[in-house]
Amino acid sequence: MTDSKYFTTTKKGEIFELKAELNSDKKEKKKEAVKKVIASMTVGKDVSALFPDVVNCMQTDNLELKKLVYLYLMNYAKSQPDMAIMAVNTFVKDCEDPNPLIRALAVRTMGCIRVDKITEYLCEPLRKCLKDEDPYVRKTAAVCVAKLHDINAQLVEDQGFLDTLKDLISDSNPMVVANAVAALSEIAESHPNSNLMDLNPQTMNKLLTALNECTEWGQIFILDCLANYTPRDDRESQSICERVTPRLSHANSAVVLSAVKVLMKFMEMLPKDLDYYGTLLKKLAPPLVTLLSAEPELQYVALRNINLIVQRRPEILKHEMKVFYVKYNDPIYVKLEKLDIMIRLASQANIAQVLAELKEYATEVDVDFVRKAVRAIGRCAIKVEQSAERCVSTLLDLIQTKVNYVVQEAIVVIKDIFRKYPNKYESVIATLCENLDSLDEPEARAAMIWIVGEYAERIDNADELLESFLEGFHDESTQVQLQLLTAIVKLFLKKPTETQELVQQVLSLATQDSDNPDLRDRGYIYWRLLSTDPVAAKEVVLAEKPLISEETDLIEPTLLEELICHIGTLASVYHKPPSAFDSDNPDLRDRGYIYWRLLSTDPVAAKEVVLAEKPLISEETDLIEPTLLEELICHIGTLASVYHKPPSAFVEGNHGVQHKGLPGSAGSHLSTPKQPASNISTMGKTKELSTDIRDKIVDLHKAGMGYKRIGKQLGEKISTVGAVIRKWKKHHTTANLPRSGPPHKILPRGVSLIMRTVRNHPKTTRGELMNQLKAAGTTVTKETVAKGTEHLHRIEGRMDGAMYCGILDQHFLPSVRELKMGQGWVFQHNNDPKHTAKATKEWLKKKHIKVLEWPSQSPNLNPIGNLWRELKIRVAR
Amino acid sequence: MIHSLFLINASGDIFLEKHWKSVVSRSVCDYFFEAQERATEPENVPPVIPTPHHYLISVLRHRIFFVAVIQSEVPPLFVIEFLHRVVDTFQDYFGVCTEAAIKDNVVVVYELLEEMLDNGFPLATESNILKELIKPPTILRTMVNTITGSTNVGEQLPTGQLSVVPWRRTGVKYTNNEAYFDVVEEIDAIIDKSGSTITAEIQGVIDACVKLTGMPDLTLSFMNPRLLDDVSFHPCVRFKRWEAERILSFIPPDGNFRLLSYHVSSQNLVAIPVYVKHNISFREGSSQGRFDLTLGPKQTMGKAVESVLVSSQLPRGVLNANLSASQGTYTFDPVTKLLSWDVGKINPQKLPSLKGTMSLQAGASKPDENPTINIQFKIQQMAISGLKVNRLDMYGEKYKPFKGIKYMTKAGKFQVRT
């Protein structure tokens, strides 16, 4: 007796059978047949062939049958527009039916048939229904205007339906008002600039009256609409707030959140000393707390919004910390949001409980959650200074658990704590060092190395520790390699006597054996710094130590002024977290140049400037920008609030779809295949065998097959098969082995020879070095010893185009000659005004120098740019 | 507004789709399936998923994902609330909300969905009104329909949809006039290792079943209304009178409805009705762990704690548990590591306990995490918050109704950390 029997229509013969049934004389049979058709439709089967037969069933006085036929029509009218016209007459007739239910149903269904030809006939019935005596019909008609607008916006405007809709806002029935508001908001969304929702105090009053009496969904539409209104004065905002407050007690959480949005917005206008303001603040907390006991999906949306609210007005929920405690069976997305809010609410008053909770979370099963909990402890330490000590001891407790990922995460956050409170918690270093061996994640290793380097003078065996890292230098990730290089240089500067060998080793590893340009460049600059001027090196590398305060005042006022003139946006960059630093950022590039100029002109002044700017980690780096936050507060409860993006981002997105997508094919835009980038690189070269095939070869070989049979089976050459198997026998892997690269001209021994000589006798010439090497058994040219760098020039004063030309003339061309670069090179520099000055351009043209065309604002293409970037990050830290 | 709805079962098949505007291709669900794959548990699928042109908002109920497709800015809570309403309506109509039930009644489901939403705007979501528009399927009605050829769609415009009391239809008649109220409280709590309460809060509801003739006007008053921190009402409750006098005054809908839900937060002292003594420990180097658990009642005002069910997710390293229960039965699933113990009623004279050993993987190190114990229980005839209904009066009708009130306390998310 159930509907599942309808699902049996699958074979082609069934369609014919259905056709016969649909045309049967018996009502009962007809209805059964229509039901079968609908059932097939719901599961996505194509029953459009039956269109004329189903439409024929439309003229009936049986309401259920009528409804079913309407359902069918809505689905298939698009594919059979000519047939759909046949139904128009019945629709028009039904719109005049004495039964309001049928009138409403007819106008509703007509609006859903997205066929242009039908919309022409829709206008008259719709106009009548909008003025129908029955409110049920009016409210259905109001929605129908929105449907029609979606199909043909021009028609709606021409026919004056928008004005009729606006009039409905003053309707006597609250349900009609609510639907009119909903329809208008939807239409307004596709006309961002039109003044459809013209809100004045009179309409506001009507909306507020309707708000109390309409359905829950209507309340949401009206509240969302209210939020767009700007009250004239604080009296008006107070009265609106008073009338909206009862909505906080609604059972529907969407109504509650929309009400919170309206209240948060209008509160802005209330004077803070008003009694009512305090009352309102108190009233906001309980409904927000109640939202958290709802289903997890609701909780998630509520939490994302609460996250905004606590940033804007932390006082609302400051006593409600406990409701954000995590239950072990909360879904992970709820857990992570709760954790975030807990940190935002953490204060000196509640930090003890929060820490106890966080510690508890750190022993949970879910690894992601545990990691975030450990990070949260670090953030608490940075946020609440008084708690830092307790946080550190909590972290130490966690390290004692020896759970691998907990230890690693703890070390990463302890590094941050050191940066915020330097020279305060070094006593824990010993404990950290015990766990050195268990660190296998790059971030944790880098953090540990940073700590060792920073506090090298207090760690007796710092050199041993760092040396242990150095053993597997080439297997480390870049992050660790860079950190290790810096740490060893720091160590060397602090304990020069015992660590010469170590620093030499790391420099040679970084500069000669590495193919990572970042690492090489950094290695070179340290090397040059150390070999030319160890004192300056100390000043630059160890500049991170904060011994500042009064010294800041010593900066020459004119220099300071110039700095500020040059970088107008320094302040904004300043507030950003270090992680946001990026070489694509022109502000940063400028800043880098200034540092560079500073360093090359007057290292002492540079030190002062740089030290003065040392940014401590800001308390909450992931705070939302104030303006965005304000905008989001006005959109609480919306999609935008869940993603913490400006709402405009959403409007734009769907705009395109609305205009681009043909109705019925919107889904087809979903996956635009990406154009394959280019396949030129694979031309003329045999494609490398996929690891899959290589593995297969090895498997077949293991199974005892010969080379020939394997080759035949997989369609590969016998020699290839042989090569793969030989490699597997030798290296036990099928993966690509590291490539060897060109042989080193100078053996490591030679390198240390050069280093030693240069360090002891900085004035050694290249010729002498060459001779020395020859004596040691290696014959090289002068250039090999020197190759790598061009001249470095120190600039005095401000540089302009003419000066730049001078530099190019005196240093650049000689460098080119000395490096024996010949003719096949291209000169590159960015679009700095002096580089693009007329004088410069002329000079370049005169000398026939090929210049790389540089798009404006493009990131630095020059590898040395990476070095400068590294330098400024180092210096800023 | 809501564009389309897809229903997806546990094995990832889309078994029903409904479009209120233009048709959105099924392929949008691929984004959902991707998210589902990333989340290890079905519960962890994020409720809001962005795709290039749409947003997918989903809820998981009865192992079915209800995925709504959104194309423009819509409050996500609006969508989630609506989806919950869909689930409730299905449950109301078919008794259960399962794939089989939905498939069995697919035409009714379609009629319902069409009636609940028009062009993405909610049309009729009140169960009273829906039932007038579309009669719920019952065996009797199906038989009558087949014989008489009548339909299960109402012919008349439901009266309630337009009257001043949209939730109540006119002309209701009963021979026995009765009004029952159930005060049900759920207690959510986190108890720490040492037995002290970290958080405790109470979610309470008053569900009503009112079968009264005509247009009765009821008032319900409490002995201690100040207890309630935050209240949400059925639309029928007059908010002004609650604000002024703390009295619930309302014209009730016909039949079952939720009059009120409330929240008593941790700021007030919340009594914890059970205590747990536990000792779950592992020793370093030993392949055995000790498990010792005793339950007891406290602060229950002499009422019995019933239907007690203890469950705990034991650490992954646990191979098996060899326990003995002083009462009830326990099961341990070695695959999911879920230990559950069906205790039944707690006898205060002879406290139930579960003792024994857990065997660990040989040579494995001591598990890092401490299992949390989840407890479910019921206490009849008591509202743990102490809330008491004072009296119920009826105005506007002449007959004397039969009135009844019941209290019950249940455990919500009641967790004990070890």
UniProtKB/TrEMBL annotation, chain B:
SUPFAM superfamilies: Second domain of Mu2 adaptin subunit (ap50) of ap2 adaptor, SNARE-like. PROSITE patterns: CLAT_ADAPTOR_M_1, CLAT_ADAPTOR_M_2, MHD. Pfam families: Adap_comp_sub, Clat_adaptor_s. The keyword Lyase does not apply. Keywords: Cytoplasmic vesicle, Golgi apparatus, Membrane, Protein transport, Transport. Residues 176-417 form the MHD domain. It is found in: Golgi apparatus; Cytoplasmic vesicle membrane. It is a peripheral membrane protein. It comes from the Eukaryota. GO terms for biological process: intracellular protein transport; vesicle-mediated transport. Coiled coil: none annotated. InterPro entries: Adaptor_comp_med_subunit, AP2_Mu_C_sf, AP_mu_sigma_su, Clathrin_mu, Clathrin_mu_CS, Longin-like_dom_sf, MHD. GO terms for cellular component: clathrin adaptor complex; cytoplasmic vesicle membrane; Golgi apparatus. Its main location: Golgi. The keyword Zinc does not apply. Belongs to the adaptor complexes medium subunit family. PANTHER family: AP COMPLEX SUBUNIT MU. This is AP-3 complex subunit mu-2. It comes from Cynoglossus semilaevis.
